[in-house]
Amino acid sequence: MSSDFHVSPEDTLRVSVLSEALPYIQRFSGERVVVKYGGAAMVLKDLREAVFRDLALLACVGVQPVVVHGGGPEINQWLKRLAIEPRFSKGLRVTDAETMDVVEMVLVGRVNKQIVNGLNQVGGRAVGLSGSDGKLVRARPWQEGANGLVGEVESVDPSVLAPLLSQGYIPVISSVAPDAQGQAHNINADTVAGELAASLQAVKLILLTDTPGILRNRDDPGSLIRQLTLSEARELIAQGVVDGGMTPKTECCIRALAQGVAAAHIVDGRHPHSLLLEVFTDAGIGTMVVGRTARPTL
Fold first, then answer.
1. How far apart are CA 158 and CA 135, in angstroms?
2. Would you place residue 74 in the very low, low, confident or very high pLDDT band (cuts 50, 70, 90)?
3. What percent of the chain is predicted at pLDDT more than 70?
4. What distance in Å separates the CA atoms of residue 109 and residue 176, rounded to the nearest whole number?
5. Which stretch of DSSP H or E encloses residue 93?
6. Rg for the chain (alpha carbons), in Å?
7. Mean pLDDT of all residues in the chain?
8. 171, 212 Cβ separation under 8 angstroms
């Protein structure tokens, strides 16, 4: 008895991939994963939609993703429109009062809601927050105000996130937070993500970037370092191999791991579905920083 039913190679591959992902889904179901979302993955439509689908899928299989976002390119666009010159020092934006108004408007009022809407459109259930909401993050001036209203994280109270995560919502958090006097500060989103990951005891901290990861030679993508221990990461900073904008990313990985996060990843957000590749494959796609030498096993 013959049948006219045929399974396409594409369908076979799709089912095979899902089956191979099962051990990772089982391993990370119920675990918290903090994702810092920024760079090209926020700007390019196809990449943006891939990230939203990845996050929604993670939530659907029981992982509890928390998103912390930047918005540098859009901030720069608005500063340009308002004839305010963007300035940076040691990879951090110099933020005077005028710039702070723009940062808060763009991150809290525009970018945050764009991400929330994008996640909701692909089936996620996202809720937008800033560091102000529920006293989630308290800021203090960075290096005694050397960069104006640039802040660093003084404390984190993640209690506002617990009921959201338990009900399957995806918190989307902008990196603006007040100090003890209520003055809003612009905090590096990588730093906020790292401190949140530590406070939530996340199993993973994932930073989506515009580089393949940590490179031994910044001009050679083939020099990607696949895995580092804490001590090796500190040594690369000391040697100047890690510098510029990669420094706060690596430092926040180090701090998160020192406070109990199992693994931190610096991943190329320009690669479609890099988030799923990092979570649901053994090899991963970027640089992983761990407190021990072996990649965590299932």
1. 8
2. confident
3. 93
4. 11
5. strand 92-93
6. 19
7. 88
8. no
Question: Model confidence at 41, in pLDDT bands (50, 70, 90)?
Answer: confident
- Digit-coded pLDDT (tens) for 104-140: 999 999 999 999 999 999 999 999 999 999 999 999 9
Six-digit token pair at 298? 């299932």
| Crossing angle (nearest 10°) for helices 230-239 and 246-258 | 150
Structural element, H or E, at residue 58: helix 45-60
Which CATH architecture does the domain made up of 30-290 adopt? 3-Layer(aba) Sandwich (3.40)
Domains of the chain, residue spans:
30-290
Residues 6+ apart with CB under 8 A from 31: 63, 64, 202, 203, 204
DSSP 134: G
The residues facing 88 across adjacent strands are 93
pTM: 0.89
**CA atoms of 247 and 81, how far apart (whole Å):** 30
Q: What is the mean pLDDT of the segment spanning 68-78? A: 89
CA distances 92 to 49, 109, 179, 216, Å, are 27, 21, 18, 22
- Please return the burial class of 9, using the count of CB atoms within 10 Å of its CB with bins 0-12, 13-18 and 19+: exposed
- Tell me how far apart the alpha carbons of residues 141 and 162 are, in angstroms, rounded to a whole number: 28
Tell me which H or E stretch contains 141.
strand 137-141
Whether 38 and 70 have beta carbons less than 8 Å apart is answered as: yes
